[in-house]
Amino acid sequence: MISVLLADDQTLVRAGFRSILSGEPDMIVSGEADNGERAVALSRDLRPDVVLMDIRMPVLDGLAATRLIGADPDLAAVKVIMLTTYETDENVFAAIRAGASGFLLKDAEPADLIRAVRVVAGGEALLAPSVTRRLIAEVAVRRVPPPAPDLGALTSREAEIADLVAQGLSNEEVAGRLAISHATAKTHVSRILTKLGLRDRAQLVVWAYESGRALPGWLHPR
């Protein structure tokens, strides 16, 4: 079962999410929070697989709450999906840097919400790739990346795979592109995250932009 914590200050919004997720045989809503401070506390108590976190909440906003969750080593297995009303909200980019695994528009279709929770719980890929790409590209175009990325201890194959992940490819798509097995692709991605000290694939995308490894507009990586 995938346990989900709902964090939104609007009761009706939480009720809607609960109704959608509770109808799935592999999901359970383990708790609800009406502010960011409560969301962090419940995350520590309940250890949910996924937190659906609204950006704008009283007491402590979703962005600050996500930072606290992302910085707590005891909550490394807790994944955050940031909820936003506007896909161009730059707070989403900051949230990914803070540890959120992706974001979802609050007016998304129920099927998209369900799929997003499963994807993030499985640690597979970024949410809503088309929207995610537009958002990160819009923010990244305003930044001036350094001339050369720090690849750390990455091998040439790992650097190649990091480029593909930065383009939004899933492990399955990476495997198909490089003619390797899905398990091998997954292992490479895990090693890349460990070597770069990154929490998940979302932060790998941000790293690719900030290091200059990927270009704004989702052109080919350098």
From TrEMBL:
Domain HTH luxR-type, first and last residues per copy: 147-212
Segments forming domain Response regulatory: 3-121
Gene Ontology biological-process entries: phosphorelay signal transduction system; regulation of DNA-templated transcription
Family matches, as SUPFAM superfamilies: C-terminal effector domain of the bipartite response regulators, CheY-like
InterPro entries hit by this protein: CheY-like_superfamily, NreC/VraR/RcsB-like_REC, Sig_transdc_resp-reg_C-effctor, Sig_transdc_resp-reg_receiver, Tscrpt_reg_LuxR_C, WalR-like
Keywords noted in UniProt: DNA-binding, Phosphoprotein, Transcription, Transcription regulation
Modified residues (4-aspartylphosphate): 54
SMART domains reported in the protein's UniProt record: HTH_LUXR, REC
Amino-acid biosynthesis is among the record's keywords: no
UniProt-recorded Gene Ontology molecular function terms: DNA binding
Signal peptide positions on this chain: none
Superkingdom of origin: Bacteria
Pfam families: GerE, Response_reg
Name the UniProt record assigns to this protein: DNA-binding NarL/FixJ family response regulator
Organism: Actinoplanes octamycinicus
